[in-house]
């Protein structure tokens, strides 16, 4: 972190994609960050630095929530 500015080299495009995939599958953000080999703090800094990523992250969370809601609805309807 030169001059207090974070670098995001560890959070490569491949790791970002895997992180977002994990979120879509319902994994908690902290667990998802660990699963791709980066700290949750790094992901938080990245989110602050790149608002578009924050939107992608929120969309992934919403997809996971939708899956859970659908499953709950189906269970309620089937008795």
Please supply descriptive tags for the structure shown above.
single chain; 79 residues; mainly alpha; 4 helices; elongated
β-strand percent reads under 5%
The total of beta strands comes to 0
Give the N-to-C terminal Cα separation.
56 Å
Taking all Cα atoms into account, the compactness measure Rg is: 15 Å
Largest sheet: none
Q: What does the average pLDDT come to?
A: 89
Give a structural overview.
The chain is mainly alpha-helical and 79 residues long. 71% of the residues lie in helices and 0% in strands. The protein contains 4 helices and no strands. Helix 1 (13-24) packs across helix 2, helix 1 packs parallel to helix 4 and helix 3 (40-49) packs across helix 4. The N and C termini lie far apart (56 Å). The model has no long low-confidence stretch (mean pLDDT 89).
List the helices and strands and how they pair.
Elements (H helix, E strand, L loop, with lengths): L12 H12 L4 H7 L4 H10 L1 H27 L2
Kindly summarize this structure in a few lines:
It is built from four helices and no strands. It has helices spanning 13-24, 29-35, 40-49, 51-77. The termini are far apart.
């Amino acid at each position: 972190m030169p001059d207090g500015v974070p670098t995001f080299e560890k959070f490569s495009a491949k790791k970002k994609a895997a992180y977002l995939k994990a979120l879509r599958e319902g994994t908690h953000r902290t667990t998802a960050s660990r699963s791709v080999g980066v700290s949750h703090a790094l992901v938080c800094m990245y989110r602050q630095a790149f608002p578009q990523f924050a939107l992608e992250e929120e969309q992934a969370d919403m997809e996971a929530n939708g899956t859970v809601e659908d499953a709950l609805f189906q269970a309620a309807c089937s008795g």
